[in-house]
Amino acid sequence: MLQGKAILWTPFSLFQNGDRWLRGAGSRTMAFFMILSLLLLVLVTGNVLLSYWKQKKLAKLLPPGPPPLPLLGNLTCFDRVSACKHYPKLHQKYGPVFTVWKMTKPIVVLCGYETVKDALVNHGEHFSERPPLPTADINGKGYALSSDSKSWRQIRRFMLSSLRNYGMGKKSMEDLVHEQLQKLFSAISEKKGKDFRPIHLLGFAIYSTMSSVIFGENLDYKDPKLYDLVTATRKYIHSINLPLYQICNAFPVLLKVPFIRNLVINVVDDVHLIVRTYADAHKASIDITSPRDLLDTWIMKLKEEESKPGAPFDEKSIAIHVGGLLAAGTDTTSSSLTFCLVMMSHVPDIQERVQREIDEVVGHDRVPGMKDRPQLPYTNAVIHECQRTLDLAPIALYHAATEDIQFRGFLIPKGTTIIPFLTSVLSDPAHWKNPEEFDPDNFLDDEGQFKPNPAFLPFSAGPRVCLGENLARMELFLMFSALLQKFAFRKPAGAKDLDLKYMQSNKMAFLVSSQLCAIPRSAPPFSA
Ligand code: HEM
Question: Which cofactors, if any, are listed as required (predicted)?
Fold first, then answer.
């Protein structure tokens, strides 16, 4: 009798003889689906409970932090915009090492110069991994320089040496930036003192520089190839923030659905296709005794390594890593340069002081070169202060622990995602006189000489420090000083005063919408 009662309400009861429902093929199919649904429900609930249990267990070991919602985590704590909003308060409440949860995955956030330096430099090896990114791993190779630590190191070393040897003795990186400047001067002059959006022209200049370095092609601003390169690379850069990508990275199982998989692949495919097309043309015309650009050095490396089993250099890796270099090295620098000029338009006194220094040291007959930098301490301090104020990469790129590590009294398990909160370093009150204000004195000593500050880490630090730091700093110095030598930058008539707090929480919108008016400076208006 007891058994009979149970039979009434369990799906298995549907198989019982004598039940009229169960006669016929239709009811058998229905029973099958009901069992399947029940199994799925058990599986999902089991998984959910297991994740919850793991989350609770792990939370006891990890640094403190805001209590996560079961399974959902701290919903607004891991992307760039919410990080800037919430982390300063969490830093105050929980101290310089705290944990936030992206669903059931913990993310350890590091704040302040001492902590970030301790992790990325003193414990650099333990924090040098990158967490997996399923949308990028879809093609089997991850994103640029994401690979496991051995191949990442090999690729990074190789990329650094190819960038350093750029031009192989023919044309230096500095010559190349000077070449770009001529195009930029004419493009700005064509604006004839009318307001324009600097992000576009400066973007063309930086993309064209990268195209020369990587593909050996100095593209004209009106060349459709430059337009395609910019569009494809930006599509690639922004893909990471697309809801589709976020959802697929949280639930990688979705990438098994062919339709979704294709959507994800299509976004990065354009930039990979451009790289592959250039690579094919390079292969047909390469002279191994005289490499022309970074792509030639990749192709030569590929040939050299193809017989070595497990070497990270193969056909696929060219598109991924070179595409990644384009993404990492273009909008970062052009946004920084845009901010430098827009900032100058809001602080005319500082702009004039920079121009006076350039006029005195360089004059007007030649553009400034790298050799002038030590004699231009104020200009150098202003560029540094612009980068500090802009704080372009507030949470850098995600790091991950390479092994279980004891850090500042907490156990951080292998694989845990780590965020170095660079904003807290660039505004650490222990290291900056006026962290909230734009003040070039942050980089000047009492004699007005340039004074480096160890907490200046817009490029991060340690083994994963920005690979293009030297190139970016060179581009910023050469372009900023030459542009200020040639033009005076004014904000458009009626433009509001710059609100740094607003700018910091709406960086991209601010940079894209900012306008400038450039007035040619034919002769130095200040006497030396
Ligand atoms: C002002 C311009 C730039 C800024 C502010 C910047 C900032 C950064 C930051 C914060 C990181 C993350 C470091 C970390 O994970 O701790 C990074 C990584 C990287 N950057 Fe830059 N970057 C700039 C320009 C460039 C340029 C010009 C290139 C290439 C020529 C480049 C290539 C890379 C690469 C390849 C990585 C990944 C390094 C690795 O994982 O080993 N960046 N950058």
Answer: heme
Query: Whole-angstrom Cα distance, residue 267 to residue 264?
Result: 6
Point out the ligand 1 atom lying closest to the alpha carbon of residue 396: 10
Probe ligand 1: pick from 332, 478, 507, max atoms within 8 Å of CB? 332
Q: What is the pLDDT of residues 376-429, one digit of tens each?
A: 999 999 999 999 999 999 999 999 999 999 999 999 999 999 999 999 999 999
Q: 472 in ligand 1 pocket by Cβ < 6 Å?
A: yes
pLDDT at 200 over 90: yes
Nearest CA to ligand 1 atom 2: 333
* Cα torsion angle, 334, 337, 343, 345, sign: negative
246 CA from centroid of ligand 1 (Å): 22
- Distance from Cα 397 to the centre of ligand 1, integer Å: 9
Give the CA distances from residue 72 to residues 40, 75, 132, in Å, rounded to whole numbers and listed in that order: 20, 6, 20
**CA–CA separation, 94 and 409 (whole Å):** 14
Å from CA of 6 to ligand 1 middle: 64
Q: Which residues contact 384 (CB under 8 A, 6 or more apart)?
A: 440, 442, 443, 453, 456
Q: How far apart are CA 518 and CA 181, in angstroms?
A: 15
DSSP 96: S
Q: What is the DSSP string of 122-161?
A: ITGGGG-B----HHHHTTSS-STT-S-HHHHHHHHHHHHH
Is the distance from the beta carbon of residue 393 to the nearest atom of ligand 1 less than 6 Å? yes
pLDDT digit string (tens) for 52-89? 777 777 778 899 999 888 777 887 666 777 888 899 99
Band (pLDDT 50/70/90 cuts) for residue 10 is: very low
Structural contact between residues 264 and 138, judged by C-beta atoms closer than 8 angstroms: yes
**Is the pLDDT higher at 504 or at 519?**
519
**Is the pLDDT assigned to residue 12 strictly greater than 70?**
no
If you ran DSSP here, which 8-state letter would residue 120 be given? Answer: I
Residue with CA nearest ligand 1 atom 34:
467
Report CA(517)–ligand 1 centroid distance (Å).
30
Compute the distance from residue 332 Cα to the ligand 1 centre, in Å: 8
Does the beta carbon of 202 lie inside 6 Å of ligand 1? no
**The two three-digit tokens of residue 424, written as one number:** 């807290």
